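Before the break, one more example. Copy the sequence into your notebook; we will annotate it together after we see the structure.
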Amino acid sequence: MQPRRRARGIAIQTLYEVDCAGHDADAVLAERLDGSPLAPGAAGFAGELVHGVLAHLQQLDQLIARHAPEWPVDQMAIIDRNVLRIAIFELGIGDDTPLKVAINEAVELAKLYGSDSSARFINGVLGSVAERLAEIRDRLQREVTS
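Here is what the structure looks like once it is written out:
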């Protein structure tokens, strides 16, 4: 498995535990990395995803709510909402993940960790996000710099 894909897997596992059990993100991330070591660059990427998602949680959840209005964020499957958070963070704030790669990686995470319908749901929400990507990037970048 590719290093960045493994890093995303570590990030989703960490965010899942933080979301459902309220554990300390740094402690969970360190535990996950101890159990499944990554190359330094990939480990840094996993940390960037975890800390970036947590730092921008409110903005990410607002975007998810806007693009999946039938599903209240707090009622979504924990895996689904965290896969969406990671993907939207990568698309909106991260600057080195192409659109198609971010969507594909999110769908793969959903297949691996989510339910039978997760991949389709994730793909649909991210397709909606992709249609307004320039606006979303501008908004998130303004919030990051302010």
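The mean pLDDT is 93. The two ends are 37 Å apart (CA to CA). Try to locate both features in your own notes.
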